[in-house]
């Protein structure tokens, strides 16, 4: 599990919890004190502790619920503090780290191996190949992505749409199918930085 995935899931859970709280507050005409806000947030967060989708942030969710049970505890304030921390992390992450995290995620969670392309080696199906020379021109010395990253893959059991969906769901890059040879099931995919698409 990469740091990027951890922060992404934590950020999503925090945003959903705060949205739930503010929707509950919006439908009442009266002021909602901290104790009542803690109850609303605890009831929203508790079921997520046993939900396997949230297993990597299970400990964080438990701590949130415990904060609400302490005298003077304020889950909302802690969620806002954590939200600021996750936003700072996202700002510091660079393109090279994103690529590393993406390739780890695709391998660990979906079985897609990745390698640098070598003219002397026979390519394998269902393996993502990256052309080293292209990679060297995609990043600034500080790791910021300045050009799309090219991925090449020959499918056997999966499809380009499936891989594009998996990549886009990570919110690390915007994946674009540049070329597809249906006869050979070969795809050329471009990874654009999430903040801008360059053509």
Characterise the protein shown here.
The protein has about 200 residues and is of the alpha+beta class. Helix content is about 50%, strand content about 15%. It is built from 7 helices and 5 strands; from the N terminus they run H-H-H-H-H-E-E-H-E-H-E-E. It has helices spanning about 5-25, 35-50, 60-70, 75-90, 95-110, 130-135, 160-170; strands at about 115, 125-130, 150-155, 175-180, 185-195. It has a 5-stranded mixed beta sheet. Strand 4 and strand 5 form a beta hairpin. The mean pLDDT is about 85.
Short summary of the structure?
It is built from seven helices and five strands.
Task: Point out poorly predicted stretches.
Answer: none
Strand content: 15-25%
Largest sheet: 5 strands, mixed
Q: Report the radius of gyration as a whole number of Å.
A: 21 Å
Q: Within the largest sheet, what's the order of strands?
A: 1-2-3-5-4
Q: How far apart are the first and last residues' alpha carbons, in Å?
A: 31 Å
Specify the helix fraction band. Answer: 40-55%
Count the beta strands: 5
Kindly name the structural category.
alpha+beta
């Amino acid at each position: 599990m990469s740091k990027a995935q951890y922060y992404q899931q934590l950020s999503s859970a925090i945003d959903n919890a705060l949205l739930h709280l503010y929707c509950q507050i919006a439908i009442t005409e009266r002021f909602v004190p901290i104790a009542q806000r803690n109850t609303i947030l605890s009831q929203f967060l508790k079921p997520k502790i046993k939900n396997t989708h949230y297993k990597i942030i299970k400990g964080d969710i438990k701590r949130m619920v415990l904060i609400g049970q302490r005298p003077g505890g304020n889950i909302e304030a802690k969620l806002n503090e954590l939200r600021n921390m996750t936003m700072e992390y996202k700002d510091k992450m660079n393109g090279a780290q994103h690529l590393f995290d993406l390739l780890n995620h695709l391998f660990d969670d979906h079985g897609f191996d990745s390698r640098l392309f070598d003219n002397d080696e026979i390519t394998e199906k269902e393996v993502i190949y990256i052309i080293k020379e292209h990679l060297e021109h995609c990043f600034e010395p500080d790791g910021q992505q300045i050009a799309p990253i090219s991925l090449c893959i020959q499918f056997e059991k999966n499809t380009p749409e499936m891989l594009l969906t998996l990549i886009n769901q990570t919110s690390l890059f915007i994946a674009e199918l540049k070329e597809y040879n249906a006869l050979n099931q070969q795809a050329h995919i471009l990874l654009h930085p999430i903040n801008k698409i360059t053509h």
